[in-house]
Amino acid sequence: MKLVQVTAHRAAALALAAVAGLALGTARLADAQTFTVLYSFAGYPTDGAGPEAGLLMDVSGNLYGTTTFGGNVNSAHCGGSGYIGCGTVFELDTNGGETVLHNFAGPNGATPRANLIMDAKGGLYGTTVAGGTGCVGETFEGCGLVFKLSGGKETVLHYFTGGKDGKWPMAGIIADASGALYGTTYLGGKLNDGAVFKLVGTKEIVLRSFTGGKDGITDSGVAHGHQREPLRHSHLRRGHQLRLPVSLRSGVRARWHKGDCAARLQGISGWKHPSRSPIHGC
User: Which residue range forms the structural domain that includes residue 86?
Assistant: First the structure.
């Protein structure tokens, strides 16, 4: 009888806890659904416009990001975006105040479309799809570049030439413990099907040039370790997996999408390849 009473009391306690948890979860869900506009961009020539990438938050809660166009500079180098202005890097403080940290002008970069990363000293790193040197008269004016921004001063770490070193870096970059940077380009490489690159200081090393065959074509993103940022627009042939250098494989798998030959890569634990592809006619 005593055992039955203890069990009954315990069941009642668990039921009460479940109700309390449900109420708390509902309250949290309601809080999560609160929508607040932190800032509305005005566009050229006041500030940026068209933020396509996500945001970076520092330890103080300040937000950092890029806008694809807008800013206070408009030139022929910005023409590839189809909008006015070459883009910006901005900071949004905890009070919702915006500061434009950098205005791209074309030769120093144009049309940034990817997330930023930050080093221990607060330096920001990123890519611009266009701007820089080369690729004159093409869809984007300039082949793109990798940049560092520190104290409002931009340093270009690498200008892509459109050749074997790569062309049009549409995704962002990641960094390893030593400070080396890794990224991809949409085109360029040996066969103009995209490349994976490593940047040590200002020295670029091409880790992989895609062939457009079994290994893939026009990739735009890498992940390192357990980083979970999506890697976009990697076009793979049906039934094949993307093979990266061993040092870059950790925590990556392919997810296939119907309707085209695209595989979206995400940094998650393990390296898996689907046994069956839902894509037909690729």
Answer: 42-159
